[in-house]
Each structure stands twice: as C-alpha cells, then as structure tokens.
Amino acid sequence: MCTYTAVAYHSCSKILPYLHSMSGDDVIRQFVAGMQQTTWPEYLAVFAGIASVAFSRAENIWVFPTGILNTVVYVYLSFHGGLYAEAGLNIYYTVMNMIGWYMWAQRKTTGEKVLHITPSNRRDWLLACSFFALMWLLLYTILRRFTNSAVPAADAFASATAYTAMLLMNKKKIENWLWWIITNIVSIPLYFIKGYVFTSVQFTVLLVLAIAGWVTWYKKQHQTQPEPV
C-alpha cells in the first residue's frame, strides 16, 4: 500500500500551521462568516455531491447525473478560489462521470449487470498507487511552476487521491472508498482556509458516507463473490 502518512503530512505542511495559529474563537468566527457568505451555486453543488455519494453507496446509477451537477459547479468555484488542481479534477470528474454512467449501465443479454463490486488484487493496488504517485507529482509540479496556488502540495495531493478514487469507482472496486476517505480528510481543511466553509462541511459529511460506503460495499461483495487470488 502507498505510504499515505508521509505524503499526507508533506501535503498538509502549509495547512496545519495556519490552523494551529487560529484560536477556537477564530475558527468559529470564520465558520459563521463563511456560512453567511455561501452562495447558492455552492449550496447546489454541496447537496448534489452528498446525494451522489449516497447513491454510490447504494450502488445506484443516479450517482452519475448528480455527480455531474456537482462537478460542473465546482469547476467554477475552484477556479474562482484559486484551487487550480481541484478545478482540473472536477473537469476530470465530469468526464469520468459520463464514462462511469455508461459502464454501470451496461448489461448482458440476460439483463444481468456487467460490472459487479470486487476487491482489488495486488496488480490493482500496484496500478492504483502508481497512478496516484504519478498524478500527485505531475499536479504538484504544474501548480508550483505555473500557478499562484498557496497550497500546491495539499491541492495536488487531494486531487491525486480523488483521481484515483474516481477511476476505481467506475470499475466498482471496493477500495475506491479508501481513496475517497483520504481525499475528504485532506479537503476539509483545504476548502476551509480558502473560504468555502460550507464545502468543508460537505467533505465532513462525505467522509462519514465514504466510511459507510466502504462497509456497505465490503459486505455486498462478501455476500456474492469470493476473494480474488
């Protein structure tokens, strides 16, 4: 498994000092101010995002149309907030939601679904971790050299884990939820310090749903299919 702890610590190195410098009253004031400044597009995106994850947990194909609504709005919000890797991520999400919609809708001539929930084998883990590492390095390099991002490491890390999660979700791999959990943990403070307080609340809810999703998919897989070799 990838060395998540070391990479996450490096990615959050610019966020944690900022949060530690804030008192409890500062956090509360920023939270209240952020909620008051929340725009209707952010509300729309948040509720669509929560609905999408809930549909994903239930293995319901509505995960994709609600996901598309969520990501299209966040393309705009991320560019506006200077989270360029997150903006690129949401463009990727939009495309992958369209592809996933098609993949999940496929059925055999008998009417049975083509895709089923399955766990990752060693090869799947190797490919996922390699994909994550490549994306994190690529995004971090781009953000450092070509943008004014204040938190390039954390922005790139959150995006790279989410790229990986979306790829695995389209394949109905159980481990997509583990990658979403990591994404949500990093994204909560990332969006909070950028002023998108309601979005940070969304990621808190999504973190809980991702943990529940992992448990649900794990149980479903063990009820229907044997472990891979």
TrEMBL record:
The family line of this record is: Belongs to the nicotinamide ribonucleoside (NR) uptake permease (TC 4.B.1) family.
The answer to whether the entry has keyword Plastid is no
MF terms (GO), sorted A to Z: nicotinamide riboside transmembrane transporter activity
What Pfam families does the annotation carry? NMN_transporter
What is the annotated localization of this protein?
A: Cell membrane
Q: How does it sit in the membrane?
A: Multi-pass membrane protein
Q: What is its main location?
A: membrane
The record's annotation in InterPro entries points to: NMN_transpt_PnuC
Q: Which UniProt keywords apply?
A: Cell membrane, Membrane, Transmembrane, Transmembrane helix, Transport
Organism's domain of life? Answer: Bacteria
> This chain belongs to which protein, by name?
Nicotinamide riboside transporter PnuC
Any single Gene Ontology cellular-component annotation: plasma membrane
Positions of transmembrane segments: 61-77, 83-104, 125-143, 176-193, 199-218
Known role: Required for nicotinamide riboside transport across the inner membrane.
**Taxonomic source organism:** Deminuibacter soli
